[in-house]
């Protein structure tokens, strides 16, 4: 090892020339992963630090469909230092003929227990008392602007008159990351009394936020609350996980972007491998001399590994510095854009994660060429034969395989999403195999067709260069193609989902979901719609909400995990006859009055591991209903029509207070008039416009696509670095080719055209493979995952091909100018 260290130290005196691509590839990949990790860690820390403020207290007791009884409220208050009651519901805000959906929140005088409600103008919570005999309200600026409301203007909320007192600038108990059905309206809890806003069966949640005595054991407090409200429909939350939905979204999106950054490192790995291979070729005589002097392969390998380790450390540190510097430089902007208070700062875990990824990728891609060269015989190295093409030893192959396994395990561990991680690694590996195969095919086709081209010397020279033994085609197609593949996949998925939404919405989706229809309003409601010729059809069902608490007597989450059906309350209904096709079991008779029975959506039931005869306990209005699973149904939620995971027999639920849910199918041109007529006749109902909900989803998809494209841009930038490195490495070869062609009578224009054609053909090949990969990825996500019809988007595909051709053309021509300017005699003498 001392001899290897001496050799490595002396070799490094030559500097890092020739390793710029190595360092840039490693630096960019590590920087991207470190930057994403630091932002993710800042949001995580913000959610943790602001847990109590975001929740509105140290803990929260939540009930669905009802408020706490006086006895329950007294029990809660007896264990708290402060208590605040909040009621959350949806309603319609109207000004004249203008209507808008809102997520309303009624609060008491103690709100907010923590943090401050920022208002414009800063009137304070006392302004909710109103003016002119009308209760006051605070509105989200989006809602106020949509309805043209200013402070002092009057409006109606669910048919009840209010006066706007201020705009809401920031709610302390909101992450701003949820999918609310509408902008916020804040009113006083007293204003609900006698208003009819919370009629029997109306959908609302009551939340009791508390400040607990210092030193309270939250786990013990949770256990006591669940024991006291065991059959009362309680949902407990505390400051340890104040916003699990936001936390889950941040973790998953952050992990996904880190995995995209790993794809960028894989692109950089191609450049690392090419750089190391080129470096070892330049060091062939040095290696041969060491072998001739008796150095063993292990000594040579150790010497070169030490050099690569030192250079890798430099690249990783530079990447960490670049990523941290970029995030800290943009800290002010990031903090302003976040819906919660965050502090962007350096953090060790994401930096160590990025460094580990960088070290593993550098080692994996550097060991392959190093192990091949270090075991060659000195004679082969001196003669510059093709013996260096032999495969590495089994030991080296096993080491590389082990490092790949460590990389995959580390990515699964850090992300916590093993399916997404393995899918990403599988996609990258598949893309690399396709690109490698395409590179071999392009080289073979170029070599086979070069001699067939007659009368076009530029094209023939380009094809011969692409098919040459030391062609740069493989490095170019692999590096550029993988970067373009990631962008192509993002483009096709985004375009596919948007296209599916636009195609399916007019023909399949209803115009409105209408909730909070009282049972005695159903016939007048249907009669009103029957008088509207624009309405195509109306579907109605009874609707309640319940929480699945137990499966076969055991805690549901302990049995089936964090499935979406078990997170929070879900809509449930009852029916005499099935609306969907049964896949298993039997429906109950029309006059059935026995034990409660339930029919479950087949897909969700399979995901939960349910079978016929299992027993589900669902808490509805504070009452536990245990029902036996009698059947499974094929529920198609993609139609955006009425669909319930759980449907009970009528006798089990018909006596409970509930409202009706309706879907209205009508053309877009009639939507505004339908809403005005219904709101005028039934001010208490809430109409949710499906197109508005779809727009919110589309906006979210667009934001995710932009974030992914930004991360993929680093992948493409890394590919461009590799492309430029390959073009720079081939500059001397181009100089010799240009000198030879000039000697044979070729003009500068012909030679330049040859270089341009070579670059364009390689870029087109990379772009075409990227289109293929993007189409496969788009089809897999849209068709298999989202279960929508996928249609290939030609415009993003053409942009990808054009980008690939342009990138290789520019890089090739830049590094062709100097070879064209050199005199043939000097170049040929140097070659000789």
From TrEMBL:
<dbReference type="InterPro" id="IPR003838">
    <property type="entry name" value="ABC3_permease_C"/>
</dbReference>
<feature type="domain" description="ABC3 transporter permease C-terminal">
    <location>
        <begin position="710"/>
        <end position="819"/>
    </location>
</feature>
<feature type="transmembrane region" description="Helical">
    <location>
        <begin position="749"/>
        <end position="782"/>
    </location>
</feature>
<keyword id="KW-1133">Transmembrane helix</keyword>
<feature type="transmembrane region" description="Helical">
    <location>
        <begin position="392"/>
        <end position="414"/>
    </location>
</feature>
<keyword id="KW-0812">Transmembrane</keyword>
<feature type="transmembrane region" description="Helical">
    <location>
        <begin position="710"/>
        <end position="729"/>
    </location>
</feature>
<protein>
    <submittedName>
        <fullName>FtsX-like permease family protein</fullName>
    </submittedName>
</protein>
<dbReference type="InterPro" id="IPR038766">
    <property type="entry name" value="Membrane_comp_ABC_pdt"/>
</dbReference>
<feature type="transmembrane region" description="Helical">
    <location>
        <begin position="21"/>
        <end position="39"/>
    </location>
</feature>
<feature type="transmembrane region" description="Helical">
    <location>
        <begin position="420"/>
        <end position="446"/>
    </location>
</feature>
<feature type="transmembrane region" description="Helical">
    <location>
        <begin position="354"/>
        <end position="371"/>
    </location>
</feature>
<keyword id="KW-1003">Cell membrane</keyword>
<keyword id="KW-0472">Membrane</keyword>
<feature type="transmembrane region" description="Helical">
    <location>
        <begin position="794"/>
        <end position="817"/>
    </location>
</feature>
<feature type="transmembrane region" description="Helical">
    <location>
        <begin position="308"/>
        <end position="334"/>
    </location>
</feature>
<feature type="domain" description="ABC3 transporter permease C-terminal">
    <location>
        <begin position="260"/>
        <end position="376"/>
    </location>
</feature>
<dbReference type="Pfam" id="PF02687">
    <property type="entry name" value="FtsX"/>
</dbReference>
<feature type="transmembrane region" description="Helical">
    <location>
        <begin position="256"/>
        <end position="280"/>
    </location>
</feature>
